[in-house]
Design brief:
15% strand, Rossmann fold, FMN reductase, NADPH-dependent, FMN binding, alpha/beta, oxidoreductase activity, Flavoprotein-like_sf
Length: 190
């Protein structure tokens, strides 16, 4: 049975390193996985008025509904994110907030999650990953244990063709994807 994995990129820039990493990592999933990037660039800023039944003049945006339904139909979610000012990018926090409502039907609830963080510096997005884990912990989302993935000096990861250059990094990411897929099978939704 095919498993659906949503990949959420914590960057809006088309040429971002997070997007380049995501495109490489998608290739590491085994057969039987439908892995798709779920774009978050067009999600309006979260406003509870959209979900408040007492507010009748502000209907829930179609982009919210589509995003929530896509996440709820997923067997797992893989976040690939940069670090902005020692935390997660605003676009990613917005997506998390949108998926967290309405309270009676949270899209993230019990969804297995993988996290790959990066930074142009040496820390590999450590602060963003820890902040993301904190936000996701509220939804009982299982994640792979150690080792976590912090990719430092991300501009140097790629060769001239856009592939990840170091074989050790490729193997490390392949191993992480393998552990993530095992987690997805061990924690089916519903």
């Amino acid at each position: 049975m095919t498993k659906n994995i949503s990949v959420i990129i914590g960057s809006l820039r088309r040429g971002s390193y997070a997007r380049k990493i995501a495109h490489q990592v998608i290739r590491y999933f085994p057969d039987g996985y439908n892995v798709q990037i779920v774009e978050i660039r067009d999600l309006p800023l979260y406003d509870f008025d959209y979900d408040d039944p007492d507010v009748s003049d502000k209907p829930t945006p179609e982009a919210y509904t589509h995003f929530r339904e896509t996440i709820k139909a997923s067997d797992g979610v893989l976040f690939v994110t940069a670090e902005n000012n020692r935390t997660i990018p605003a676009c990613l926090k917005n997506a998390i907030d949108i998926g967290s409502k309405p309270n009676s039907d949270v899209a993230w609830k019990n969804l297995p999650a993988g996290i790959i963080s990066h930074s142009v510096g040496r820390m590999g997005g450590y602060s963003s990953q820890k902040n993301l884990r904190l936000a996701l912990s509220y939804f009982d989302m299982p994640t792979p244990g150690q080792p976590e993935v912090f990719l430092g000096q991300s501009p140097s990861l790629f060769d001239e063709d856009g592939a990840i250059a170091a074989e050790t990094t490729v193997e490390f990411l392949q191993n992480y994807v393998q552990r993530f897929t095992e987690l997805v099978y061990a924690h089916p939704r519903g």
